[in-house]
Prior knowledge:
Blueprint: H1 3-17, E1 29-30, E2 34-35, E3 39-41, E4 50-52, H2 60-67, H3 75-85, H4 96-100, H5 103-106, E5 116-118, E6 123-125, H6 127-139, H7 151-160, H8 176-188, H9 198-204, E7 209-210, E8 213-214, E9 225-227, E10 232-234, H10 236-246, H11 257-269, E11 280-281
Parallel strand pairs: 9-11
Antiparallel strand pairs: 1-2, 3-4, 5-6, 7-8, 9-10
Amino acid sequence: MNYSRIALIALGATLTASLIAAPVDEKLVIDGELEMTTVAPSPEGHPLPEVRSGWHYRTETTRALEADSFENPGMLGVEQGEELWNTVEGTAGKSCASCHQDAAETMAGLGAVYPKWHEASGKPINIELQINACRVNNMGAEAYKFDKGGQKPLTAYIKHQSLGEPVKVSLEEGDMQAWWERGKELYYKRTGQLNLSCASCHEKNNGKYIRADHLSQGNVNGFPTYRLKQGNLISLHNRFRGCIRDTRAEYPAAFSDDLMALEVYTTWRGQGLSVETPAVRQ
Length: 282
């Protein structure tokens, strides 16, 4: 008996038979003051007519959590990241603040333009890898292991300084276009026993329910994101790996070339949306 085929047919039936629900038509305003761009025109070449934040697909309770910084559980991670920003580590006797002073000024807008081309390594680099480069080269500290130590909260703190800024990744630097093309190929590549791609859920079945989950466009403008299901901040590469795992395929290592290419492409797909870090999702 071909169990993988049965599982695929069952999943397809779940999606097909499930309800289709339009995303809510509301505005996300943080703390009643900062209005976020959660719907934007698609960049040229995008397969969808407009891009929408995953916030529109969440429950009323979840949406309310993100709109209130005091209630947003992800802000605890941001506060931890602020402590790390000012913590001296390494042989150079430095903290992040030693070089960059007030993050509200020096990091403003930075989270909206990563991943960026990194000339020294000849590939794109995200904020997590930039943090590690600074720790090793400037602080004389050890690089963070994936999702360990202060990597997630410090990344969330830095990206939070760009809250409300529109995402804009440049494909003109270095060889970014080639990485975009590689990421696009991976986005549409079916993998695993369930023979699914990123596009299977977030493009073809966008707006449908699979069990209790309302499938969004899969835009990544809110990472690191607080997921209520896991009760923690979740990094983007962790989410990539989780989705690949759910197709019953072997997932690549974090910060591997495949996942970095996928980050370039998915970030581009959400261009124009505000940075929401830390977003709240189910």
